[in-house]
Each structure stands twice: as structure tokens, then as C-alpha cells.
Amino acid sequence: MLGLNRKDTTFFLIVIALTLFTPFLMQPFGETSPLAQFNGGYPDLMAKVAIFGIFAIGFNILFGLTGYLSFGHAAFLGVGSYAAVWMFKLLTLNVFPAVILAVIMSGLLALLIGWISLRRSGIYFSILTLAMAEMAYRLAYSVLTPLTNGETGLQVRPTDPRILDGPGAADYPNLFGLELSRSWRLEIGDHLFTFNVGYYFCAAFAILAFYISLRIFRSPFGLMLRAVKANQQRMNYTGLNPKPYTLAAFVISGMYAGLAGGLMAAMDPLAGAERMQWTVGGEVVIMTILGGAGTLMGPVLGAGTIKYLENIFSKINENVLHDWFSFLPDGLENAVVWILSRFTGEGWALTLGLVFMLVVAFLPGGLVEGGQRIARLLRRRGGKGEGGAGGGEETAHTSPSTPPAAE
Amino acid sequence: MDQIILQFINGLDKGSAYALIALGLTLIFGTLGVVNFAHGTLFMLGAFCAVVMQRILTLSAITIDPTQKDFLGRPLEVKTPYVELWFGHDIGQLLIDWAVPLSLLLAIPFMALVGWVMERGIIKHFYKRPHADQILVTFGLAIVIQEIVKQIFGANPIPVPAPKAFSGSLDFGVLLGFDPNVIVYPYWRLVYFLFSSVILAAVFAFLRYTTFGMVVRAGMADRETVGILGINIDKRFTIMFAIAAIVAGVAGAMYAPINSPNYHMGMDFLVLSFVVVVVGGMGSLPGAVLAGYLLGILESFASMNVIKDALPGIDQIIIYLTAIVVLLLRPRGLLGKRGVMED
Q1: Do A116 and B136 touch (CB under 8 A)?
Q2: A192 in a structural domain
Q3: Which of A150, B115, B148, B296 could anchor a disulfide with B11, C-beta 3.0 to 4.6 Å?
Q4: What is the mean pLDDT of residues B64-81?
């Protein structure tokens, strides 16, 4: 189906199903259950997962396949957001023009930055992209204020021209009149499920993004990109010029980032320069690596895990912890709570940094490799036929280059 | 003319900080072949050594003075720093006043320890891994250190004053025959510039004139041969890592009065110092120093009004622009050796 072989079709269908049923999957606990705070099934978080999933899938096309580590992808995210908000301001609050312009603008910027940065490789490439992103960020704050509205950020105002919108048009980003903030609720027992237009809009793009990435991974073009990572010198000797391939990968991943930026603006029509800071680009690096660079599912897993945990962890404050450990003797309880509260709530970034370090050090293939290892272990334990659980799903689909040269 | 001189000396202190951080980065890269994204964080830790020193010195004993009342009519609580109790009022005040220079006493052993632990605990295991992995693990480490500092000291910048003796400004223009108050330069920045010159000279002298330095230089040139000659190069490189950490740390501690320490200053300086290293030439120590001062001064010139009017926004991006131009025109950097990390 759709140019995929049977295995990939099943895989793709599973991904579609997972995406469509996210409102159920991320809402496993009833409203009255004490674990209700671990529910992640509200629109804002689900859309974030989809958006950062797109961002990470795109980044993975560059880093996972070619091995070029870019720290500058935040610039494309920011440009996408600005472009989208400008479309909202000038043309219409319908999201399609906004998303399209976001992709085009970030693609152009990626062409420029990539054309310059890709003259170098390795650490120089990382630093060049870092410098470019920092430059874009600084410019957005200073000279480009007429375009970006500086520190305040670009916002949609009632006085904007919006020439395509009639007088009675919706005043929130919408899909041909259907506002993205619109939600339907479904109550089953004490479970509450929310279906949000914005989430499904982002999810549709995420599925599309995943499909394109799947096709790229399986294509001769993807093979070329892997060749760049495996041995660029040998590729040169064979008479192939890697530059067009890497540049194409860079532009594609930049457009993915722009799409993510545009969707961010669609979910919340506001664009600020802080989206362009290089640490945001660092975040997508973390997501991709944590999930598993060079694998299809890895980046999405990484983005989902990080965004979900970020949300949950920041909710666990000291009171919640005291609640959990109230069965311990007082002194011990306080000690345990004190230690744990360093890592939760405000300390979420600390946990993330630690986990990230551990993953880079011991599990270079990320969560996907972890799943594979567990699956292998189970298979060895339980004889054959037991390995379907956990990461078994991905085993067949991950690229051969999964562990990035660990030795 | 006076404007040019003013911007030139203004660029010196920032350039000194860049040069010191870049020197440490280059030392680590040259000896261990590791790209250390946590180096800016070491600079930040140094700056917080100054904060800690100030807090230690102002630790106070609280006594209740029944003769005085506060505005609610309760006996007044008088805070007396312990140093004043121990050494008398005058010496105590002097010590508190000189907290920043004194913090070097704390910064040097502390940074040596941090450097040693970092190298033995983490970096050691990444020698043979690709540069991308090294960048990633040190990036993670930088986040961890930064968050720990944030939890201890909070998110706001903490002002740390320079000693009162250096609080004024030097009217530099008068010395050169300009009108008074045209070229003024705060004393502390002058101190910082001199201090960093001394450190730079010390590091170079250490590498040039001691046997230890000779071995390290030999190891930078050809690690394998030095190893075959029966010298334990790993141990020396660990020590060099600690030295690089100390250089970054003292640079940060002395910089605290110029830029109030906050937890993310390390990341801010990191990007810049990487740019400096690349411009100077990866692995070239003199290149790092030269590029540090050069970029510091360029940045300062770009913030002149004349130039800002001609090219709006140039002051924000001049460093990055320079780096891009240098990398594209002269890939090995200003003083880089031919063939070192050229692609």
C-alpha cells in the first residue's frame, strides 16, 4: 500500500492507529482515581507531542541518517512560527496558508544555512549551525523587531487586515471555520476523553511526516544519506558528490522544523524569539537521541516520552510526594521527599540531563535499542516466539546502522 | 580617535574572558581530543565560587542587643560576621571586601577537583567515541551542573561586588593627552585584563619551560609515540584537564563583579568560546588567545554608534559573522596547523 512493502504497511497502520487513539491511550486513569494526575490526554499536551514528534522526525532525517549533528534547528522552528503568525495577520486565520508559508520560509532559510554550513563537517558543522541559529535569534530580538515584534512576540490582533477573512470569520486559528481549540468530550464511566480539533490537525501532519520519513528511509536517497554517515571518503572515491544529498536532507529536516513551528503557532497564535534559542535546538537533539537516532520510531518515542514526563514531573511537587510517602516514619519521609523533590517539579531538567547522559553513555541507540535488548533478553529466556512484546515491533524496522559506531 | 581607543580597551576584558575559556577548551581538545561542551559550565562554577566565598565570609553570628530597639520595639538583632568576631572589625571588613580575589583560594582546589572527577568519571570513557557522542554527553553534563547550581542558588543573578579599592574608574584618556572623562575604564576591568594576562603567560610558560609541559606538548603532537617511550601520558592529560578547569574557574571567579553570576551564563559563554576556538584554529593555543581578544575587541567596536547606524544589528552578530567568514575562507582557523581537523 502507498508504495510500502507489507511489513512497512503494517507498521505504518499501527502508527496511524496509535496516533488516532492517543486521546484514549494517554488517558488510562479515571477522573476519580488517585492516579488521575498521570493522565496526559488533554489537547495541549497531545498536540505538543505531535508537534515535537514532527520536529524530531525531521531532525532524525538529518542526524540519524547522515550523522551531521546540527544544533541550529531552533532557527527553523522560529521562522516557521513567525511565518505562520504573519499569515494569520495578513491573510486569514485559516491554518492552511500559514502552515504552507511556514514550510516554505523555513525551507528557504534551511537552504541558505545548509549551503553555508555543509561546506564543513564534524564539529565544525555543529558549531556553524550553532552560530547561525544564535545569529538568527539575536537578529530576531534586535534589528528584525518590525518583523518579529522583539521581546513581546508576534501576536494576532483584532486590527490586523486579514484580507481573506470576511467580517463574520472566526477569530481563532481555524480549519475552514472549525476552530482548532474546539473539543468534544466523551465520558465512559469515570473516564473522560477529550477529542480536540487542533490535536487531530497536528496528528494528521504527524502521520504525513512519518510517512514521508518512512519513504525516505526506504529509498535509494535514504541509502545515499546512510552512505554519507558510514564513510563519506569512500563515497567520494566512488565518484559520488555527497553535498547535494546532505543539503537535501538538511532542507527537508529544516522544513519539518518549520512545519512544527507553524503548527505551534496554529495551536497558540503567538511567536516569540525564545523559540529560536539554540537550547531549543538542543532539546530536539536530546529527544532524537533519547528515542534512538537513525530509527524510524525513535524520535517520536523520544519526543513523546520527554513531553509527557516533563508534564508529569513538573506536577509532582513536595505535597504530592509527602502524600505518597506518608507511610514512612516522619524523619525518613522528609528525607525521601527532600531527595526526590530535587528531581521533580522544578528539578525536571536535572532528571532529563541525567537520563540523557546515561543514554548517551550506555544506550547509544536510545529507547528503541533498549526495547530491542529487552526483547532479545525475553526471547532468550522464554524460548522462541516470546519476543513480540516491548521493542519487538521495531526490531524489524530499525535501520542497520542503529548503534552509531559505539566502539 | 578617542572612541576607537575606548572601544579597544572595552573589548579587552571581554576578550580576556573569551581567551581564558577558549584556552582551556583548546587544551582539552589538543590533549585529550575531546570536545567539551561543559566547559562554559566550568566558567560558571568558577563565578559561583566567588558567590560562595562572599557568603562564607559574611556568615554572621546573631546577637541580641537589648539597648537598641527595632521599629516594632523589639530588641534589635545584630548580625556580626564571624570573620569580624575572630579578626577584629577592620580586618574582617577588609576580608569581606576582598571576597572576590579571595575566592580564588576556593576556586583553584574546587575546580581542580571538579576537573579531575569529570575526566576520570565521564570523559575518560569517551576518548574513543565519535566527537558527536562527546558533544552530547558533555552537553548533558552541562545541563546537569547548571540545574544543580540553579537549585542551590536560584535563578536570579547574584551581584558580587569588587573590592572597594577598585570600585572607581581610571581616566585613561588623560594619560594619553585627551580631555578628562572621555576614556574612562573601570579599575576592576583593568585588573581583570592584567590578571588574565598573567594566567595566560603562566599557562604558556608552564607548557614551554617545564618538563611536564614538554611531555604534554609531545603528547599533543603524537600521543602514541610518547606512550611507547614509556611515559604515562593519560595521567598527565588528566592533570591538564584539571588545569584547564582551573583556568576556566578562576576566569569565572574574577569575572563575577563584571557580570553577576547566574546559572545559565555558562551556556552563553560556551557558544562564544567555541566560536573563538574555531576562529583561532582548533588545537592551536596561541590561536585561541589571539581569537579571544580579537573577537572581544571586534564585538566592542561593532557596538559603536557610528557602526551600528551604518549596519543595524551588527553588534549582535559580529562574532558569529566573523566565525562563519573565517570558517569558510580559512577552514583551519587563523593560526591552526595544516591538516588538524580541517574537514
Answers
A1: no
A2: yes
A3: B296
A4: 74
Is A330 a domain residue? no
**Model pTM?**
0.85
- Residues 6 or more apart whose CB falls under 8 angstroms from that of B71 comprise none
Tell me the H-state helices in A316-389: 318-324, 330-343, 348-362, 366-382
- The rounded radius of gyration (Å) of the Cα atoms in chain A is 22
Average pLDDT of span B161-177: 77
Contact call for A350 and B144, based on CB within 8 A: yes
Give A373 to chain B, closest Cα distance, Å: 21
Q: Is the CB of A357 less than 8 angstroms away from the CB of B137?
A: yes
**Distance from the B110 Cα atom to the nearest Cα atom in chain A, whole angstroms:** 22
CATH code of the domain containing A146? 1.10.3470
Shortest distance, CA B49 to any CA of chain A (angstroms): 21
Is-contact B59 B84, C-beta < 8 A? no
**Average pLDDT, integer, range B265-289:** 84
The mean-pLDDT minimum among A173-177, A225-229, B334-338 falls in B334-338
Across the interface, do B313 and A142 touch by the CB < 8 Å criterion? yes
| Contact state of A350 with B282 under an 8 Å Cβ cutoff | no
Answer whether residue A407 shows pLDDT above 60.
no
Query: How many helical (H) and strand (E) elements, i.e. helices and strands, does chain B have?
Result: 15, 4
Q: Which residue has the cell 473539543?
A: A183
What is the grid cell recorded at B165? 579599592
**Which residue in this structure is represented by grid cell 587563523?**
B334
The residues that bridge with B77 in the sheet, in sequence order, are B64
pLDDT in tens, A372-382: 899 999 988 87
Interface residue B309 vs chain A (CB under 8 A): no
Find the CB nearest A135 among B126, B278, B320: B320
Q: Quick check: B307 contacting A, CB < 8 Å? A: no
Distance, in Å, from the CA atom of B104 to the CA atom of B192, rounded to the nearest integer, reads 13
Q: Which domains does chain B have, with CATH numbers?
A: 2-61+99-329 (1.10.3470)
Cβ atoms within 10 Å, residue B55: 13
Q: Does A271 map to a domain? A: yes
Nearest-Cα distance to chain A for B284, in Å, is 15
| pLDDT for res B341 | 55
Under the banding of pLDDT at 50, 70 and 90, the label for residue A328 is: confident
Chain B residues with CB under 8 Å of A286 CB are 140
Half-sphere exposure for B230 (CA within 13 Å, toward CB): 0
Mean of the per-residue pLDDT values for chain A? Answer: 84
A360 domain residue, yes or no: no
Nearest to B106 by CA among B56, B158, B171, B181: B56
**Domain of residue A284, residue span:** 6-294
In tens, the pLDDT along A254-309 reads 999 999 999 999 888 888 888 888 888 888 998 999 998 888 889 999 999 898 88
